[in-house]
Amino acid sequence: MSASTLSELTAARYGKTSVRVFRVVREGSWQHIVEYNVESLLEGAISTSYTEADNSVVVATDSIKNITYYLAKISPHILNAEKFALHLGTFFVSKYAHISKAFVTVEQLRWTRIQVPDNGKLVEHPHAFFRDGDDKRIVKVEVDGTAGKDKLVGKVVAGISDLLVLKSTGSAFENFFRDEFTTLVPVNDRIFSTSVDLTYTFADIALPAPTDEKKFDFVVPVQKGADGYAGSVWDEDVPARARTATLETFAVDESASVQATLYKMAQRIIAENAHVSTVSYSLPNKHYIPVDMKYIGVDNTTPAHAEVFVPIAHPSGLITATISRK
């Protein structure tokens, strides 16, 4: 029996990953910057490139890279990761007749304006920035043209990765299930630290097809103030609200467990953003173990007296959940 009768191609997707983009947008003396890592993958009538060594159906990955840079230059939406990703995905699906889906992932690095003194108060500098933390904005977009080039559907998931948080009190873990394998001691006061990975999914959106010959146009269909804008993928305040909800809930919640705090975070994001359908968190528990000093007669293990800790990288608890809108 030949190899060709034993197997078939059932899924194929290809493109360019880790395209690093830094863009300056000038408004007179006031300047904006964004830094992205972009991945674009294409699906469609490309199977013969795998099964018949037919490269005529392949849009070269180098071309995908060049298109990414060109749209970064001309797109009026470059400062917003969701809109830029949708613009890029819409172009790929609209430009190439044999491409039915585009998958674009944008990772945005944090840059924040430096504040400087001006007439006795602090103001934001027009063109000086600092790297404000290691957490990143993540946007994942699918532009689906399988129903027709004039019936494009956008699917958007956004969120945060690597947001490291810690509070030194206000967290407990008690009354958990116990059996013969349980060695963990219940505590009513502990350090709570985690590296937040958050994703939130928007309801699917209809995307207008480009009307220009070269397929570079991208029109945002819902503008600020219009019905359906608030809490939608077009609402540029959603990322800040989601980040604030995460940080504020983490800080003020008298946490009974990571699970309980996670649920409250997600509830707030859904409540504050009308078009977010699901919220998912992945929270590894960063453990800090109090150093036992009983050997020299010092109490550093009871919660009220624990002040010196050893950070433990591995192993760690991992708590995940998805909360959905009813």
CATH class category label of the domain at 11-149: Alpha Beta
- Rg, Cα atoms, Å: 24 Å
Structural class: alpha+beta
Strand portion: 35-45%
Q: Helix count, per DSSP?
A: 5
* Overall average pLDDT: 96
Q: Which spans of ≥5 residues are poorly predicted at pLDDT below 50?
A: none
For the termini, the CA-CA separation is: 53 Å
The CATH architecture assignment of the domain at 11-149 turns out to be Roll
Overall helicity? 10-25%
SSE pattern, N- to C-terminal:
EEHHHEEEEEEEHHEE
**Major sheet description:** 9 strands, antiparallel
Assign an overall shape.
Answer: globular
CATH topology call of the domain at 11-149: Urate Oxidase
InterPro entries: Uricase, Uricase_CS
Main location: other
Organism: Hypholoma sublateritium (strain FD-334 SS-4)
Binding site for O2: 61, 285
Structure description:
Keywords: Oxidoreductase, Peroxisome, Purine metabolism. One of its GO terms (cellular component) is peroxisome. The active site is at residues 16, 61, 287. Its main location: other. The chain is globular. The protein has 326 residues and is an alpha+beta fold. It has helices spanning 47-51, 61-74, 81-95, 238-252, 258-272; strands spanning 14-27, 30-44, 99-108, 112-118, 121-130, 136-144, 152-167, 192-202, 205-207, 276-290, 309-324. Strands 1, 2, 3, 6, 7, 8, 9, 10 and 11 form a nine-stranded antiparallel beta sheet that branches. The chain has a domain at 11-149: Urate Oxidase (Roll).
